[in-house]
Fold each of these.
Amino acid sequence: MLDTEFLTILGLGLVLGLRHALDTDHLAAVSTVLAQRPSLRASGMIGFSWGLGHTVMLMLVGAVVLVLRVSIPEPFALAAEFGVGAMLVLLGGILGVRLVRERWHVHTHDHDGDRHVHLHSHALAEGHGHIHWWRDSVRPFCIGMAHGLAGSAALLLIVLSSARSVSEGLTYIAVFGLGSIMGMMLVGIVVSLPVLWSLNLGRPVFLTVQGLASLGSVAVGLTMMFHIAFGGQLF
């Protein structure tokens, strides 16, 4: 039988997992992916994949830490956070480059002997490409794993101080992970709403929202890297 104290700790872990999904770097990372897949169904899958990757990494690191009863070195934790910042810059940059190169680019045509150029977007074509849920879920899963590694130090410090056994510690991490999965699925759906709304308003508005997602991800990533490099506090 689980005692009341441990059940309370598990309940707190679930709530903290839900809250964890609202961290700025998490929102920035998921937004860059959602901006490219304006669909409520896709947003839920992206949130689930992110949360699952996050939980898997926490469980792997947690098992090692709990069995060996060691803490994660601070330099390693800072390096992981810095890596997340670099990843956000990369994600935002990739989205920005894709908008420039693939969404809008120049075509040259000849009409009746007259040669002219105009902007063209393959994104305007309906039915372009196919959705493969397993392939499209790999990237948010890997992003979630990176965030899980970066956030493991603070969480496992709490687990080490409160868990009375390895099984209790892993149970807490699993419940925390469940909360983060639920939170990210809800976040994904909420974030996708303005993207869908912008798409209904026309392609220029939709492209503007994608551009803002790209710039936001780069800005958050650079801010993280700056604060870590110069010893500041994150957000």
Note: The beta strands are 105-111, 114-120.
Amino acid sequence: MLDDVFDVAFLAGFVAASVIRAFWLKRTLHWWRRREKVADDRESGQDKPLLLLTTVGMIIVPFLYLFTTKLDFADYSLPATASLVAGSLGAALFLQALWLLWRSHADLGESFSPELKLSKKHALVTSGVYEQIRHPMYAAHLLWAVAQLLLLQNWIAGPAFLVASLPLYIVRIPREEKMMEEEFGEEYRGYMERTGRVVPRLRG
């Protein structure tokens, strides 16, 4: 069945994304684990619950759908043509998400941190995919979330990542940008004026 094929496509995308993340975490100097190298730490008490909620939507709920019968009551079936269109679009978006996830890590290099922390040698990266958008990793995860919605034909598992991640992005992105603006001043304000947050700015 088409939904089974697209379940496998989702799982393959998930594995690929996990490999990409693990690869770049291993290559990155883990300065955030060394207190003396952290110049600014903006982590707060609300981050962990929001990250946990995102993890539930990204991993726990879709895996319950894929490997148990607990969410079978929320399954739905599309007509064959609609299922093919939705699944194919979802697979294409997941491929785009994987490419963007890779490029955002590669272009950021040693300035990457999974937390709201700046190192003493942190650099403002404005090249590569960062030339068009300020938060390509978040953009990659949003593409992933939409792909999940299209690939998993379940009223709970499909939208779980999208619904669970939005509160984190709404709260975290402005705080991250405030931290960067305070660190880099006019340079970052100019960067904000010519780029979009998670989608490229329309040129007038």
Note: The chain is about 65% helix and 5% strand.
Amino acid sequence: MIRAKKSLGQNFLIDKNIIEKIVNIVNIQGKIILEVGPGTGNLTSSILDKNPKKVYVVEKDNKLANQLEDKFNNLITIFNDDILRFKETSLTKEKLIVFGNLPYNISTEILTKWIIGLNDNYWFDNLILMFQKEVANRIIAKFNTSDYGRLSILSNWKLKVEKICDIKPESFYPKPKIDSSLLFFTPKNKFHKINSKNLELITRIFFNHRRKMLKKPYNQIFNGNLNILNKLKIDLNLRPQNLDYEVYYQLTKEYENLIS
């Protein structure tokens, strides 16, 4: 078996039951598939068994890309590239279904890149992605919980997120030291039309001191503006984790109105 590279965060999925669960989450027959980090191609084989219209894979590791070429020949189209620099929208005008056993060390960067790059015309129908369990918990966290924060707010801005299952280390080779979680993302029909950089600014300032009350970050951004405070019904004695996603999207919109 090929040696995994720690530098690329590689842990190859080998559990056939988990692989079967992943490829059955949605019907992919006749669909165009993008798989990120296919590794040794175990999931890729099961994807092909479902008769998709086309399968693209992005694999950064040169040796693995060559191995995939030998294994699948012309059944898939391989891009030996870095997903963080890859332009998914260049593949096709049709919407993709994306599978990814994402490298732990860049999983949040990948998700953030995709979310920030979205507009009204989504380039995918679904994302079916695996994360370190701790990261997945932050993505799906609700307000008033300890895991809730900037990643939760960004992830739920344009996407609906559902946890499918947790996955034990024994399902991978080599075995990671932590559990993983499989998440299912679908586009929201409506979302707040705000600038991602402004959302990032608002959440960064508020969550810089997540255990402190809201008064200081609110005054830093809005200079004590009582109209916004009353409009959004915000209690400045609360803490950042006590405000729902929607409030942060509305705060970002109010900020953009002030600076426009």
Note: The longest helix spans residues 245-259.
